[in-house]
Target: Pyridoxine/pyridoxamine 5'-phosphate oxidase
Amino acid sequence: MSERSGIFAGDDPFALSQAWLDEAVKSEINDPNAIALSTVDADGMPNVRMVLLKDIEADAFVFYTNYGSVKAQELDAQGKASFVMHWKSLRRQIRVRGLVEREEGPQADVYYASRSLKSRLGAWASHQSQPLSSRSALMAEVAKVTATKGPNPPRPEFWGGYRIRPLEIEFWADGAFRLHDRFRWTRADCKGKWKVNRLHP
Ligand SMILES: Cc1cc2nc3c(=O)[nH]c(=O)nc-3n(C[C@H](O)[C@H](O)[C@H](O)COP(=O)(O)O)c2cc1C
Model:
């Protein structure tokens, strides 16, 4: 532990993640909060896609999506996920592996309400991950929900958040000659105490 200093210092990996993200907000051109979210299907076939990390809580990471999507089906079936955030300008990454649960209460309502009206209506119109016959069919669906849902649509019950409670978090920073710095935080369960190990690059 004592060897950790500078950008790796601290005893709270969520605060550290937030500090790294805050730095990335200043340096990245687009979407500093983008994460590559990985799931597995029932056959163990991995799947990955980008989503936006919306909250770093005291003990979890939160993002939002459609509960009918492929990712949601895989998350609900397996209860596990991993993700990586990579910042090209900072040359750093954070890797996370953990257990997932839905966030479909008032917190999801508040986040949904904070989105632009067009995004809120888009969430109603999109049957995410389902086949779509044409772009115009989607736009017709948008026009339909715009006419029927009014200016203050409620959060669709098929749309909400997931909270990832990590069992493992790795902080990685680029080093000269590929001699990178890596610190892996692990805990046996979500209430456990964190252990930190430095890893070979
Ligand atoms: C930068 C970026 C951010 C994205 N953010 C989200 C997001 O927050 N939620 C989401 O459902 N899809 C997001 N998407 C779209 C997903 O990558 C993906 O296409 C979609 O969720 C369907 O994935 P699935 O079929 O595996 O469920 C984002 C895509 C990109 C490139």
